[in-house]
Amino acid sequence: MPRLTLSGEVVEFEVGGPIPLGRGLVPPSVRRLGDLVPVLSHPEAVEDPERPAYFMYRGVHLPEHEPLFEEAGLRFDITVIPPRVLGEEYIKTKGHYHSRAPDGLNYPEVYQVLQGKAVLLLQRPGDDPSEVEDLIAVRAFPGDAVVVPPGYGHVTINPCRETLVMANLVASECRSDYRPFVKLRGASFHLTTSGFVRNRLYSKSPPPRVVDARAPLGFDGPLSIYELFVRRPGAWTFLTRPSALPGSSTPWNLPRRTL
User: 3-class SS at 224?
Assistant: First the structure.
């Protein structure tokens, strides 16, 4: 059973069930296996399109913190991805790019693993979405925080047998564009039980640089990104004004690792 700790309050919920917060409930949006067919390397592996693939809970916060999130223009979400292999490919999110902020850069996003293990595949395209200039596979464990930099599309993958629970902070005005991933059947590489496999619909892409998550901008330590936001909401203005993010045009420097 997934468990959240929000400013010292422990919240438990069933996978796919609503999250109880105060006197209310936050129901999930359900992404079904049929929704993933356009981005899978083995779409024929989907036998039941109506079966849930993963669950997205948007606007998860304690009632007393609602003014903080509204004033900051941010949203705290939870994504729950049960383990599954489709053909040879590990279960993943559909993948998307972010809309542009008023300062002209694409909105960034911060993720944190709460339970399980994740591989976040980040790709930066050129002028042609089928030409990827940079591709990073970030391996993250519980407590690890990962910044999706401006200009990068991203896919979250659950490569293990445990349910993956992720939290994220993102601008409320950020919109997701799934179309390039649908058109090209996913990211430029798929993660399978045999390793990374190139997506031949892309005309250009380097192999992924596999790295361990590193907590940039002081996100390390025992606190969750929820608690860090509540304590210092002004420190997160880069999520609504990406030009304030140091090194916003390139990812942070992460050590090379073997997956």
Answer: coil
| DSSP-derived 3-state class of residue 27 | coil
Residue carrying the six token digits 């036998």? 47
3-class SS letters over 95-109: CEEECECCCCCECCE
Task: Quote the DSSP letter at residue 142.
Answer: T
Q: In sequence order, what are the residues at sequence separation of 6 or more whose Cβ sits closer than 8 angstroms to the Cβ of residue 82?
A: 15, 52, 54, 91, 158, 163, 164
Report residue 221 as tokens. 């330590």
Residue 167: its H or E element: strand 164-171
pLDDT in tens, the chain (259 residues): 898 989 888 899 999 999 998 778 999 999 999 999 999 999 999 999 999 999 999 999 999 999 999 999 999 999 999 999 999 999 999 999 999 999 999 999 999 999 999 999 999 999 999 999 999 999 999 988 899 999 999 999 999 999 999 999 999 999 999 999 999 999 999 999 999 999 999 999 999 999 888 654 445 556 789 999 999 999 899 999 998 876 644 444 333 333 3
HSE toward the beta carbon, residue 179, CA cutoff 13 A? 4
Predicted model pTM: 0.90
Give the Cα separation of 138 and 120 in Å (integer): 5
**Total Cβ atoms within 10 A of residue 206:** 13
Burial class (CB in 10 A: 0-12, 13-18, 19+), 67: exposed
| CA 50 – CA 46 distance, rounded (Å) | 10
